[in-house]
Amino acid sequence: MAESRTQQLGFICGLDAALRVVGGKWKPLILHFLYSESKRYGELKRCVTGVSDKMLSQQLKDLESHGVVSRTDHNEIPPRVDYALTPLGRSLAETLVPLCEWGEQHQEMIASSV
Amino acid sequence: MAESRTQQLGFICGLDAALRVVGGKWKPLILHFLYSESKRYGELKRCVTGVSDKMLSQQLKDLESHGVVSRTDHNEIPPRVDYALTPLGRSLAETLVPLCEWGEQHQEMIASSV
DNA sequence: ACAAGTATGCACCTTTTGGTTAGTACCTCC
DNA sequence: GGAGGTACTAACCAAAAGGTGCATACTTGT
């Protein structure tokens, strides 16, 4: 029984591979908010309600290392840094749209079943 | 400024709501494997490579409480229990398909950028 | 002059997540 | 008759995720 290419790479399936990139509590939300437009660090933080500085920086760094987010440091003082999706990141963020819509449609039920 | 219905319910956005249901390391994979067909506990465990009994039971219970997975205990000895997606679960699993395809297309890159 | 905003890094701590082992009660296969 | 499969649960422990507060170095607004 030949192993599939996916399994040779150490993934269970394509979904498992994708979760390596967007897994975690904050990454999908970050991608989602950058999807509408690129944002400064502070703007992003205000969008992703409840995230701490530490988490936001860390997750952005992860996303950058996977090539889905690009960081532009304007080297100004006070600091000014922009975050944007790369084309790859944009294609990934698009796949989250159906999930987002599902959440909107069923949010009442989700809220009631703790 | 009026708060949106989503925010009244305590969610940042629809995506945030959906993540309450499918958040975590294993839940998306469980849904994905149940999408093709309903499975017995042991079958599912063999599909979701690497999951422990504890995690699989726990996550299945969570998914059941959110109404996306249904559990059928045949009350036999030795035990026989089937897990299947509910219609709601099926609609959720469908939203994961694009993500799965994205993962397949980009798995080489994902594997290389640790 | 002083507070607040700016984008982080660091150290410390708590919470959540996840793994391991053992146990159940019965069956089938060798 | 002992091993292994079946679908779990509970207790215990380790690891990862996540939160808080402090520090930076300079600007703008009060």
What does this molecule look like?
The structure is a homodimer of 114-residue chains. The first copy, chain A, is mostly helical and 114 residues long. Chain A has one domain (27-109): Winged helix-like DNA-binding domain superfamily/Winged helix DNA-binding domain (Arc Repressor Mutant, subunit A), CATH 1.10.10. Chain A is built from seven helices and three strands; from the N terminus they run H-H-H-E-H-H-E-E-H-H. A three-stranded antiparallel sheet of chain A has the order 1-3-2. In chain A, a hairpin with a 7-residue loop joins strand 2 and strand 3. In chain A, helix 3 packs across helix 6 (87-95). Chain A is globular. The first copy, chain A, starts with a helix and ends with a helix. The model of chain A has no long low-confidence stretch (mean pLDDT 91). The interface between A and B is large, with 50 and 49 residues. The structure holds a DNA duplex (30 and 30 nucleotides).
- Rg of chain A, please? 16 Å
Structural class of chain A: mainly alpha
Main beta-sheet annotation of chain A: 3 strands, antiparallel
CATH homologous superfamily designation of chain A: Winged helix-like DNA-binding domain superfamily/Winged helix DNA-binding domain
H-E string of chain A = HHHEHHEEHH
Helicity of chain A, as a percent range: 55-70%
- Largest contact between protein chains? A-B, 50 and 49 residues
Low-confidence stretches of chain A: none
Give the beta-strand count of chain A.
3
Q: What is the average per-residue confidence, as pLDDT of chain A, rounded to a whole number?
A: 91
Cα end-to-end separation of chain A: 43 Å
Q: Which shape of chain A, going by the Cα principal axes? A: globular
Q: Under the CATH scheme, which architecture of chain A would be assigned?
A: Orthogonal Bundle
